Amino acid sequence: RSITTDPRFLGRFRAHHRKLPLLGAFEYIQGDLVFTSLLDRPDRIPPGRFDLGRYSDHRDYGVLGFRHGRVLVLDHVRKDLVVCAPVTGEQRRVAVPPEFKTVHLNGAVLCAAGDPGHVHGECHSSPFKVALVSLCRHDYRPLASVYSSDTGAWSNLVSTAAPCQLFDAGMDGSLVGKALYWLLTTMEAGIVEFDLEEQSLVVIKGPPVTDDFPGGGTHRIIQAEDGAVGFAMMSYPHFQTWQRNVDAHGVATWVPWKTVDLRNILGPRPQIGRTRRMARLTRGWDYVKGTGGIMCYVEDTDVIFIHMDVNVYMIQLNSMQSKSIPGKRFRSAYHPFMSFYTPG
User: How far is the C-alpha of 289 from the C-alpha of 282, rounded, in Å?
Assistant: First the structure.
């Protein structure tokens, strides 16, 4: 048997490396969710290796989130969830609580393994949790619940004390520590925080910025220094991050963290003629023709993906180093996929 398929070897390899490799990304191309490898040759993975099957069809299914080697898919017709493990091909359907059937949904899938020293990488074979956050259609208070694959049951519903404005349904939440975060429609409205340990749902204040969130394309919740909650905002040519500090009395304060000039780390923008040609190829997304935006955030690697016109870049937030993704052109939603993977 090959050493690369020996479970003992894989266990030692994963324990040594600790972090998941970024294998590629799923993006919608002509209505289907397709995997594109981000690895260099000869390690590049063929697109068909990670196929979600019928759940790739954007007309009937939508992706709520990618995390720990799994994908959370929403069935628009049945209003049920499907948890997919692209590495193994396993797919598991999860019924949505009736309170969530007629409302906008945001969600996340997470590994539930509690073993000491567990390294996220083979989480497709470990127990999982699904977190759902939505809006109650009667009074517009967010609702939240957690599903456990161990028990096959949902937790009791929790909600915020007061109504709040609708947030962008379908936007990936950010996992920072033991809590998930979603942006509301404006910074004045705040940020939804779902604490998975305490099973509490609150709306916290955001940093003192005034920009609204057109489609969520210019802002993201991130993890800042020492595991603190952070906030990233892109307004070309500036890329700015904030950090939320909480003192001994529980008082939270947002402070600026880093500000960079994107022209210094991305290099010159593409020529206007080429930009317009590529914009036509992307089927006319309005914000493709603008100055760019944030596409997604990868928590485990502290990497953020942005697009400038129709070009895609990775930015490592700690070093603020950037890398252009050759051949990638911004089309729509972009979902990075991380997992340990052995060819063959």
Answer: 10
